[in-house]
Amino acid sequence: MTPDPRLRAARRCHNVVNPFHSTHYFSPDLGKELAAIGVTDRSAAYFAVRSAAMGEVCAGTVSATFYNFNHELVARHVPEVWKTASPATVLAARARAVDATLRRLLGAEVLASKEMAEAAELALRATEACTRHARPLYAAHADLPVPEAPHMAYWHAATLLREHRGDGHLAALLAAGLDPVEALVSHVATGKGMAPKWLLATRGWSRAQFDEAAGRLRARGLLTADEELTLTEEGVALRSAIELRTDELDRAPYAHLGDDGVARLSELAAGFMGAALENGAFPADLIGKAA
Fold first, then answer.
1. Tens digits of residue pLDDT in 175-196
2. Are 173 and 143 in contact (CB under 8 A)?
3. Of 97, 156, 186, 267, which one has the fewest beta carbons inside 10 Å?
4. Rounded CA gap, 275 and 291, in Å?
5. Helix (H) or strand (E) run with residue 130 in it
6. CA distances (Å), 216 to each of 10, 171, 175, in order?
């Protein structure tokens, strides 16, 4: 089957827009702002900032919408974190952290540039075609107001596009029969996923649970029989099918933006992320198979 060039272009666009949203998760500014409102645990901070748009949700809602976190870890912090800081307080702290992070990574001149304003306009236009049904994280964030500052408006739009695609991706994982840990392990095996050391430190799974999931994938013929995390041909095909289904479910915003708009947004987003990466937006060992 010949890949649809528009779907490939949409995925490339997502791949450079999405990290703009994610920069604050690895920023010292987020820890500083959350600590100032009493949330000092890193896991609690992550669960709070990403779920706050949904209100004072329970652990079950977070586990369902985040998919690949150990529910025991989630339940350790949610809903307890809402006793420390309300969702509105958390959202305000996140906004301050995002602003500080982007100013540090890109500088005031870039944030105030016509290119940033153009990227915000393009990304927001793409979100006009996003849909709420069966997309809880997207739908919750779509109810938040669009910030006035162009860099914050672009970050908001990047968040909407990320969560819209992410909600669809979870449906594809579920249809493929991959449980949360199997989804993580198989993504690592592609060479494009978060490295095991980071997964084990943040997702709440033990090394034994990680290895057991790898064993289940080997039993299904998705990983090679050796101890390396290497996909078989069947495993490659399954992960490719998952990504293709995700592309299909995420087609609408990029079709709405149009070919020229997708190309221009990709160009602008790549420029911003190139600068952010040069300034240490993410840990150097974040992606890969190394344990």
1. 999 999 999 999 999 999 999 9
2. no
3. 267
4. 28
5. none
6. 32, 20, 17
CA pair distance 93, 145, nearest whole angstrom: 15
Domain membership flag for residue 244: yes
**277 lies in some domain:** no
CA distance 57 to 136: 12
Cα separation, 180 vs 63, whole angstroms: 10
Q: What are the two backbone dihedrals, phi and then psi, of residue 287, each rounded to the nearest 5 degrees?
A: -110, 140
Q: What pLDDT digit, counting tens, does each position of 257-288 carry?
A: 999 999 999 999 999 999 999 999 999 999 99
Three-state secondary structure string covering 229-250:
CCECHHHHHHHHHHHHHHHHHC
CB 105 within 8 A of CB 275: yes
Helices 87-106 + 28-36 axis angle, to 10: 150
In 107-149, which residue ranges form alpha helices assigned H by DSSP? 108-111, 114-127, 136-142
Rg, C-alpha atoms of the chain: 19
What is d(CA 63, CA 201) in angstroms, rounded to the nearest whole number? 17
**Dihedral angle, C-alpha 22, 112, 122, 96, nearest 10 °:** 40
**Residue 119 in contact with residue 268, Cβ under 8 Å?**
yes
Is residue 190 a part of any domain in this protein?
Answer: yes
Domain count, the chain: 1
- Model pTM? 0.97
Mean pLDDT of the chain: 97
pLDDT for 106-122, tens place per residue? 999 999 999 999 999 99
The residue segments making up the domain with residue 203 are: 5-271
Residue 43 lies in a domain: yes
Name the amino acid, one letter, at 136.
Answer: P
